[in-house]
Amino acid sequence: MGCMPSLSAVSLPPEVLARYEAVIGLEVHVQLATETKIFCSCPTSFGAEPNSNVCPVDLALPGALPVLNRRAVELAVEASLALNCELRSYSRFARKNYFYPDLPKGYQISMYELPLAEHGWLEIEIDGVKKRLGITRVHMEDDAGKSVHDGFADSDRYSYVDLNRAGTPLIEIVTEPDMRSSDEAHALLTGLKQTLEYVAVSTCDMEKGHLRCDANVSVRLKGERALGTKAEIKNVNSFRFVKLALDHEIARQIALVESGGNVVQETRLFNPDTEETVSMRSKEEAHDYRYFPEPDLVPLRISDEWLSAIRSRMPELPAAKRTRFREQWGLSVYDTEVLTASRALAEYFETVAAVSKAPKAAANWVMGDLAGALKAEGKPISESPIAAERLGELVGLIGGEISGKLAKEIFARMFATGEAARTVIEREGLREISDADALSAIVDEIIARNLKQVEQYRGGKTTVLGFFVGQVMKATKGQANPAAVNELLKTKLG
Hints:
single chain; disordered N terminus
């Protein structure tokens, strides 16, 4: 009943697809940026030798008891606040019982009936249309280890277990089923990642498994209120794959319903090579996990004083920063979107704007010359060879001591050496030439060499002035003051 019908999902006519809508909810697991694990003092560093960051707590040895990491709680609270959630002053850990070879305890320590936070939201925007999507809950839990499979033939197939990841602190963010398309799901994940990176609760590095996503999806005829049978797509490790997986699963379910079949509640995996979802197992229900309160941990209580201290160090969030950039710096919507893409980029720009006192020029240099140079080197903004203060100094010199063309030459030297603009200017003699006598001699020489263009200008073809300006700039290697050159040329040619 759950197999693909003969009608291919990709062959469905647009009018058939248009009759249905998807109902999508996400479960996002995020590794918190602590130095040690959630219930022990083992490091959380990535890339260590297998099974080197383990202790009796991770191995579930008799007598080993968990001790809650205070820093993990604070990061989880910060994430909840950033997602506009209501914090519980009293929450409780629970045992979630299931067997996996990389889960030595035979259960996961999670939260169930009393999660850390509930009733939050995150706003997305697609094609200029804003939509608020609900966050059902945020709760804390520990991660399992990792199974590594090697070999292909049955006689030469091995599985290894690395428990370094076991016990790393996670938050699980469960959304409301408010999304109606893969585009909305992609937008939510993008906004979620940006928000969590802003508050520095996680690096959200998907390649290292710091952010993993499960998607629940069902379909129904538009106008229907009842929900269809959902399938869960498990452990998708990139936003692009989430979108592709949802698109395929939505079409698969519509094709199944259209052919008279029934969607089966199950867990499915996404195959990036075929861009299709495949059945993995039947979907567990909450009762299958036999939740009960964790007896080795006392309930978690967050006092008003503790919450106030955490709230006081919360940074400005992306949406508020975008609004402020438009109001304070007079930037366009596009510029604010680009410059607030990451907290590091936004802070870099603000420093350049403040030092240069030219916000629009600062935005252009950060988004243009600097971004291009960093991309060519494969470096993030945090590794820029030019400090923000020094780029601000360079931008501030343009139109006064140096020309825009000269600034680009100085910028290239600064990017290569990390030096200050004035250091480059003094060492290489790149100051702008504004002295009227020095420029006059050069202008006279250019005019004498280009009599034909002189006649054209005096005959009314004033656009030839640009030719003369270009020749002077070329002769001075871009160091001539453009305004002074224009005035001299108009006087001498007129």
